Amino acid sequence: xxxxxxxxxxxxxxxxxxxxxxxxxxxxxxxxxxxxxxxxxxxxxxxxxxxxxxxxxxxxxxxxxxxxxxxxxxxxxxxxxxxxxxxxxxxxxxxxxxxxxxxxxxxxxxxxxxxxxxxxxxxxxxxxxxxxxxxxxxxxxxxxxxxxxxxxxxxxxxxxxxxxxxxx
Length: 168
Description:
The protein is mainly beta. Helices cover about 15% and strands about 50% of the residues. The strands form two sheets. Strands 1, 6, 7, 8, 11, 12 and 13 form a seven-stranded antiparallel beta sheet that branches. Strands 2, 3, 4, 5, 9 and 10 form a six-stranded antiparallel beta sheet that branches. Keywords: Signal.
């Protein structure tokens, strides 16, 4: 009797999941899956900076395969020589699907203005900055321009979660 109840419960759960999949398959985001932010949280970078790159697929109003980055930075403490402002940037990299990047596909550039080192977020889609990706798997790599200990340069290279584009 318990086996029959378990089988019935499994069938009901499976039907609910299949129903959910079918119900969402027709949405604009059906061509893109995954994405989001780093699964391990903020990445520590020089100058006591922390960075969290994210990648997202189509917005509700889009009906295609556009992807865009959102980069969040904040300063974890402050020491002499740390930056007082940063300019977050992002690039879209292709991956082999096994955790290795295979090349840069698109340079999203940088935020339109320097940001204080407090908690900041650059959403590239707010400036119409997105990329129509071909089928494949991708990550966003991000960093920032800053002066740290008197040295101006590009710091970072943290990567987002993987996003997959199935059709273009």
